[in-house]
């Protein structure tokens, strides 16, 4: 298959990835069954392999010192995600080229999803409209509610980038994304009790300060 001419130039590390029948590169994490890639499903053992072998979630090559997570703004507030990190250039490519990330009205296709395809934790099943690239030098895996699935706690950011519609997001777009998703976090916190609500409020204050500093200086 040929790479789509309307997509951004691929990072060097992603040029060896196979191309699907639409002309999109198939990320390393994607499950391929009988030659057909299902972008909604992670390859068997993919999370553990990427974490243990320090592989980029998107290209599959060894990561470096700086680790970039492709997340939504809500993950920036609670600093938790279900996916391992990537190279910064691979993450930026995803934010500029992935159909789900570049189209705010796109919804996840859950038709005929395998029963065991869900990731650890509680997923907020909405398109946030804004993609946050959270770059850090550290992260820590942990178990969700004592279960078997792994989640990752994001370390302090060394860089933040916000994307919308395949280009850098505006402050208004970031604010709208946060306003749309935060009530869902609040609902879950209230279900967990007063301490969870207090913790969430603090996390929101910290995240808001990061955004202000990013808007003023370009650095978190």
Can you give a write-up of this model?
By secondary structure, the chain is an alpha+beta fold. It has one domain. The chain contains six helices and nine strands, in the order ββαβαβααβββββαα. It has helices at about 45-50, 75-80, 90-95, 100, 170-190, 195-215; strands spanning about 30-35, 35-40, 65-70, 80, 130-135, 140-145, 150-155, 155-165, 165-170. A four-stranded antiparallel sheet has the order 3-5-8-9.
Q: What secondary-structure arrangement, pairings included, does this model have?
A:
Blueprint: E1 30-33, E2 36-42, H1 46-52, E3 67-71, H2 73-78, E4 80-81, H3 88-97, H4 99-102, E5 131-136, E6 139-143, E7 150-154, E8 157-164, E9 167-168, H5 171-192, H6 194-217
Antiparallel strand pairs: 1-2, 3-5, 4-7, 5-8, 6-7, 8-9
Helix pairs in contact: 5-6
Compact summary:
The chain has 6 helices and 9 strands. By secondary structure, the protein is α+β, with helices and mostly antiparallel strands.
Show unreliable segments: 120-124
Number of domains: 1
What structural category arises from helix and sheet content?
alpha+beta
Helix content: 25-40%
- Strand percentage lies at 15-25%
**Overall mean pLDDT:** 88
SSE string: EEHEHEHHEEEEEHH
Number of strands: 9
| Shape type | globular
Distance between the termini: 40 Å
Taking all Cα atoms into account, the compactness measure Rg is 17 Å
């Amino acid at each position: 298959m040929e790479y789509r001419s309307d997509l951004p130039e691929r990072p060097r590390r992603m040029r060896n990835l196979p191309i699907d029948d639409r002309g999109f590169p198939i990320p390393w994490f994607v499950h391929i069954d009988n030659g057909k890639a299902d972008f909604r499903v992670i390859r068997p053992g993919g999370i553990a392999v990427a974490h243990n072998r320090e592989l980029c979630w998107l290209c599959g090559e060894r990561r470096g010192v700086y680790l970039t997570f492709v997340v939504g703004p809500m993950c920036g507030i609670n600093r938790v995600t279900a996916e391992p990190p990537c190279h910064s250039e691979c993450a930026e490519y995803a934010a500029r080229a992935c159909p789900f990330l570049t189209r705010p009205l796109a919804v996840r296709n859950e038709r005929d999803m395998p029963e065991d395809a869900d990731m650890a934790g509680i997923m907020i099943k909405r398109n946030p409209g804004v993609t946050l690239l959270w770059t850090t030098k550290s992260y820590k895996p942990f178990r969700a509610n004592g279960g078997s699935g792994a989640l990752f706690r994001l370390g302090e950011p060394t860089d933040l980038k916000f994307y919308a519609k395949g280009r850098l997001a505006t402050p208004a777009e970031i604010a709208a994304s946060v306003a749309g998703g935060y009530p869902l976090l609040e609902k879950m916190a209230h279900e967990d009790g007063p301490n969870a609500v207090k913790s969430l409020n603090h996390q929101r204050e910290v995240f808001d300060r990061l955004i202000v500093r990013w808007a003023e200086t370009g650095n978190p």
